[in-house]
Design brief:
253 residues; alpha+beta; eight-stranded mixed beta sheet; 4 helices; globular
Length: 253
């Protein structure tokens, strides 16, 4: 895992849209030791930033629309949100939310890739994104689950200029050769109703122990702890409200 800071074109933030904000605060505080702080401004709509010490690492939010699924979302840093939205359209993506200002923090848009996976675009102003990566309790890897790998590979290389490192078992995304994420083709083992999506992975010291903590706190395991090709342990839990996320062993290369 090589993601250690936010940078242009790469993942910079992740946020959970949930049906029960208070329950989500308790669950993730128990799992990762986060310190959540909810923005008191009415216009912030309950937006809650989770911290590790003083570093912001993720956000938890209520659902803002009836059609919004309970899910983790990944934001990617762009120099200009309006230019990036134009590039998304030109590359065959769709725009769900046109660029809008978020206080003095930055400019924000929501789009989908040609395979239907939603992602967020973030043009940073006073808020660059997460202040900690690839450390226990923080974001360190992002994974695209898709049914159309050829089309989406062309899309992301066009929009963000990512490098693509493909092997027989796994495809990795990178910026100038430094990989920060991967892609998995959704085959027959994935139920048809599961849409293409981005999945954030959080670093932990012990995947097996944290996976057990998740189930003890009312979550379930979609993928039991397992060892992958590089010897790293990973798992995919689902929180009590239904949002999926990944775990991996921190501090290993």
């Amino acid at each position: 895992m090589k993601l250690d800071k936010a940078g242009p074109g790469g993942p910079c933030w992740t946020e959970l849209g949930t049906s029960d904000l208070e329950a989500a605060k308790r669950f993730y505080t128990n799992i990762f030791g986060w310190r959540p702080e909810t923005d008191p401004r009415q216009e912030a709509g309950g937006y809650t930033i989770a911290h590790l010490d003083d570093a912001p690492v993720a956000a938890l939010t209520p659902l803002y629309q009836e059609s919004q699924p309970v899910a983790w979302n990944v934001s990617f840093w762009v120099p200009d949100a309006d230019v990036a939205v134009a590039a998304v359209r030109a590359a065959g993506g769709e725009v769900l939310l046109e660029p809008m200002d978020v206080f003095d923090l930055g400019r924000f848009a929501v789009v989908t890739d040609p395979g239907g996976a939603a992602l967020q675009l973030w043009q940073a102003r006073s808020f660059p994104g997460a202040g900690l990566f690839n450390a226990p309790g923080s974001l360190g890897w992002v994974e695209l689950m898709t049914r159309d790998p050829v089309a989406v590979a062309a899309f992301y290389t066009s929009v963000f200029g990512w490098t693509v490192h493909a092997s027989e078992s796994y495809t990795q995304w990178g910026i100038e050769g430094s990989d920060f994420g991967g892609m998995v083709e959704m085959g027959d083992k994935f139920p048809h109703e599961v849409p293409s999506h981005w999945l954030p992975y959080f670093a932990v010291e012990d995947v097996d122990r944290t996976a057990q903590d998740c189930t003890d706190a009312g979550g379930t395991l979609l993928m039991e702890p397992t060892t992958v090709g590089d010897g790293r342990r990973i798992a995919v839990p689902r929180d009590p409200q239904g949002a999926m996320f990944g775990l991996y062993t921190a501090g290993e290369e």
